[in-house]
Design goal:
Distance between the termini: 27 Å
Mean pLDDT: 85
Helix content: 10-25%
Structural class: alpha+beta
Radius of gyration: 17 Å
Shape: globular
Largest sheet: 5 strands, antiparallel
Length: 195
């Protein structure tokens, strides 16, 4: 739901929460499962924590970081899992690999999830931001396919400044840049599209 709060008053609408504090609006994403819309390009920032370490490539109105306990309910909408090691690096796994390695609940089966691939890219942070702002799906898909097909590992280590390519069997293509990393959280700037 959208909730706009202005000087103590609240108004409910559909979608997400919009809080006005005099300095501008801050949007808080919904906990609803809001799938990505085919052909729509999404550019966003997101934070993942030890408690909210699932990465779901959904609509920008939906919170991308979800708790591990939600994996079974999210099904094919959840794509990746972050595991935190220290303030210098974390690991990210495709959700099926995370499930097979026992990182999710024993009651969750990997057949629930869409196949996903991740890989480090060979592009710089500046190149990532250029691509993200240009909203060029052809270039995004080309980089994702080239990176993911070249990479044969199931999980990768990420550090601040790492640019990662992602793609799924359902036709989602995206990239993210690790902006900040602590032992319990990671902040990213990202973009994705469902084709």
């Amino acid at each position: 739901m959208i909730q706009t709060i202005e000087q103590g008053s609240a108004r409910r609408e559909s979608g997400h929460i919009n809080v006005r504090n005099g300095l501008g609006a801050k949007e808080v994403s919904s906990e609803l499962v809001i799938p990505a819309v085919r052909g729509k390009y999404y550019a966003y920032s997101s934070e993942f924590t030890e408690r909210r370490s699932l990465y779901a490539l959904m609509s920008c109105k939906a919170n991308k970081g979800r708790p591990i306990e939600a994996a079974g309910n999210l099904g094919s909408e959840v794509n990746f899992l972050f595991l935190f090691e220290n303030s210098k690096q974390a690991k990210i796994y495709p959700i099926q690999t995370a499930c097979a390695n026992g990182f999710l609940s024993n009651s969750v089966k990997s057949e629930l999830f869409d196949e996903s691939w991740i890989a480090p890219t060979k592009i710089t942070a500046d190149n990532f931001y250029d691509l993200r702002s240009q909203k060029d799906p052809v270039r995004l898909v080309d980089i994702c396919q080239a990176s993911c097909l070249e990479h044969n590992k199931s999980g990768i280590v990420v550090k601040p400044g790492t640019v990662v390519a992602m793609m799924t069997g359902a036709g989602k293509f995206g990239m993210f840049l690790v902006k900040k990393l602590t032992p319990a959280a990671i902040q990213i700037d990202a973009c994705h599209i469902l084709l």
